[in-house]
Amino acid sequence: MRLSDFDFDLPPELIAQHPESSRSASRLLHVRADGLSDLRFDELPRLLAPGDLLVLNDTRVLRARLRGAKASGGRVEALIERVSGEREALAQLRASRPPRPGGRLVFGSSAATVIARAGEFWLLHFDEPVLAVLDRDGEVPLPPYISHAPDAQDTHRYQTVYAREPGSVAAPTAGLHFDEPLLARLRDRGVALAFVTLHVGAGTFQPVRIDDLSQHRMHAERFSVPETTAAAIGAARAAGGRIVAVGTTSLRTLESAADDEGLVRPGSGETRLFITPGYRFRVVDRLVTNFHLPRSTLLMLVSAFAGVERIRRAYAHAIAARYRFFSYGDAMLLERDASAAGTGG
């Protein structure tokens, strides 16, 4: 398939600029083989069964955007891609003129030295621990389609309630719909919860530039699967429960950690998994996800999972019904298309 197969027209007013008043008050479109249902997100528990396993990404979003100036003059903006050491980080840099190795960058009360170019990123060495700099001087890295400057609401709401492992520069947005009362209702229903970690990189905002999708290369992202989660997946399967991924990040983590038979192995690594129609899913049975950008790898992933035509119908319905799109928007519950099942699912 080609990039143009994943395009659609979205009225700009449907791009959510702010979250709903409460996390679970968003809408939920249930996408099934036999049709669509318009629901509220807080109805999710009745769509799941006792013994199902909900897998969530517990990454924590860093205050990853730094604004400052070069010591030689001129403004500079850094978006941290990855903290690679206590005082080192890879970053995207925006400046009127490219920085030079050895140059100094000043961000608020902190400073960093430009070490070297690393592909599309720059390696920076900070004068103090990177995480401390970000906590004090950084901004919430809202996506480029959100027009307002980050405020106090964003600090709270552009973070899941279960975030605990710092490392992402974008939120795993499907998880933003869960609040503590909803998680408690899921547990009371007999739905088990398990966690993985995938740190979302700045590359998630980069557009696909090649029409021939076979030539596209995904950016690498770090992930980990605890032993308890791998064991919970095995136990749920043995008991006939379904594996429900919350977000494309959780799905990509599970599929990256699985062997050809669908056995999820604990451990850590990096993934460049690029899922397009024709992929055979080995682990995940259902997917909770937001509505994604046109021509994006995430739209390709959900098309692979639920079926291209089913997703086209769902998106056309969502636009007509005025659903809210993207990070602060509404959600879908997708049933996996039968033709996308691998040996493990």
Task: Report on this structure.
The chain is α/β, with parallel strands linked by helices. It folds into 2 domains: 3-61 and 153-340, QueA-like, CATH 3.40.1780.10; 65-139, QueA-like (Thrombin, subunit H, Beta Barrel). Helices cover 21% and strands 28% of the residues. It is built from 8 helices and 17 strands. The protein has a 9-stranded mixed sheet, covered by helices on one side. The chain has a 6-stranded antiparallel beta barrel with strand order 5-6-7-10-9-8. Strand 1 (27-32) and strand 2 form a beta hairpin. Helix 7 crosses helix 8. The longest helix has 13 residues, at 308-320. The two termini are 24 Å apart. The mean pLDDT is 95.
What's the quick description here?
The protein is of the alpha/beta class and 345 residues long.
Identify the CATH homologous superfamily of the largest domain: QueA-like
Number of strands: 17
Which structural category fits the helices and strands? alpha/beta
CATH architecture of the largest domain: 3-Layer(aba) Sandwich
Tell me about the largest β-sheet: 9 strands, mixed
Residue share in helix:
10-25%
Overall average pLDDT? 95
Global outline: globular
| Through-space gap between termini | 24 Å
- Tell me the CATH topology of the largest domain: QueA-like
Number of helices: 8
- The order of strands across the largest sheet is 2-1-17-16-14-3-12-13-15
Order of helices and strands: EEHEEEEEEEEHHEHEEHEHEEHHE
Strand content: 25-35%
User: What's the CATH C level of the largest domain?
Assistant: Alpha Beta
Radius of gyration from the alpha-carbon trace, in angstroms: 20 Å
Q: Low-confidence parts, pLDDT < 50 over ≥5 residues? A: none
What count of domains describes the coordinates?
A: 2
